Amino acid sequence: MKNLFLYRFPIIIVLFIMMGPLILGCSSKGDVSSLNISPEEAQQISYNATIYGFPLVIMDLTRQVFTAVPKPMENGAPVNQFGNKKTFPDPAFIQVTRPNADTLYSAAWVDTAKEPVIFSVPDSNGRYYMMPLLNYWTDVFASPGSRTTGTSAGNFAITGPKWSGELPEGVTEIKSPTRWVWIIGRFACAGPSDYENVQKLQNQLKLMPLSAWGTDYVPPANVPVDPNVNRKVSPLDQLLAMDAPTYINYMCQLMVDNPPYEADTSVLAGFTRIGIGPGIDYKAYFAGL
Questions:
Q1: What pLDDT sits at residue 281?
Q2: Which of the residues 77, 205, 235, 263 could staple to 83 if both were Cys, CB 3.0 to 4.6 A apart?
Q3: For the segment 145-171, what is each residue's pLDDT rounded down to a tens digit?
């Protein structure tokens, strides 16, 4: 346990240093006397909320940067389409922390807001692969792959937290606790001489809306790109450039479609004491203090 603490301690310090401007912004602006809470309590709650919302905000910024492209490419793809890395990552690769050096990546952002999205994987012919699905809180909630579901072809319906209904025969449901899902797939690759074999498998990965199942679905081409998304600045730098009310309000709005875990109910109850919660207009709340 002692070694684990020493391992994590520097990370806590880094987070505190990075989040300092946000935390101080929450605690030094506005008169909290009307909230029946001490300034010290308000500061501690704002600190906890800042850390709590970090994965949610960084995931949304990461999604925006990755999907702000008109067509699939190695370092991005439109929503509900795969971007396939055709070679091993080099030192300039920053999409994933500490990427593997013996796999080729296939990544996609899936939006379940309108309807389930069917995710189809090919028969890998015994090749090791994994397709971790991350929710908006950065937690892996499912991972189809050779170890878990085998190497045969398969079809999985990624459904959102509010969806219920019938699925086609032969399609297995994977229930996501959040609207958005990040697939960070990997195929084992023996080296450059094996690239072509893996690329053939990557090209067979498919995503399609449930309503298109059974058709010759073709993903949209030349997808409009949001001009407000900045792909030149990293998601982390964009987050750290936010003022406190903007960051907290961003977090509050994201929690509507990407709800917190039920186990966090007591934590969220504490946040509401200073106007932080799913769907709350924190900027308006903050301005009224």
A1: 87
A2: 77
A3: 999 999 999 999 999 999 999 999 999
Q: What one-character DSSP code corresponds to residue 259? A: P
Answer for the pair 104, 199: CB distance below 8 angstroms, yes or no.
Answer: yes
- Contact between 249 and 29 under an 8 Å Cβ cutoff? The reply is no
Q: Are residues 127 and 184 in the same domain?
A: yes
How does strand 129-130 pair with strand 133-134? unpaired
C-alpha R_g of the chain: 21
Query: What residues does 262 pair with on adjacent strands?
Result: none
Count how many domains the chain has: 2
C-beta of residue 50 within 8 angstroms of C-beta of residue 22: yes
204 and 79 both lie in a single domain:
yes
Question: What's the one-letter identity of residue 206?
Answer: K
Task: Say what the pTM is.
Answer: 0.85
Which residue range forms the structural domain that includes residue 246? 21-64+233-287
Indicate whether 77 and 193 sit together in one domain: yes
What's the CATH number where 119 sits? Answer: 2.60.40.1610
Q: Which pLDDT value is given to residue 286?
A: 61
Residue 277 has a pLDDT of 93
Consecutive 10-residue averages of pLDDT for the chain (289 residues) = 35 43 46 66 87 95 96 96 92 70 95 98 98 97 97 98 95 98 97 97 98 96 93 90 89 95 94 91 68
Angstrom CA distances, 136 to 63, 93, 111, stand at: 10, 22, 11
Last residue of a domain, one of 180, 212, 244: 212
* 203 and 94 within one domain: yes
Q: Which residues of 144-170 are buried (b: 16+ CB within 10 A; e: fewer)?
A: bbbeebebeebbbbbbbeebeeebeee
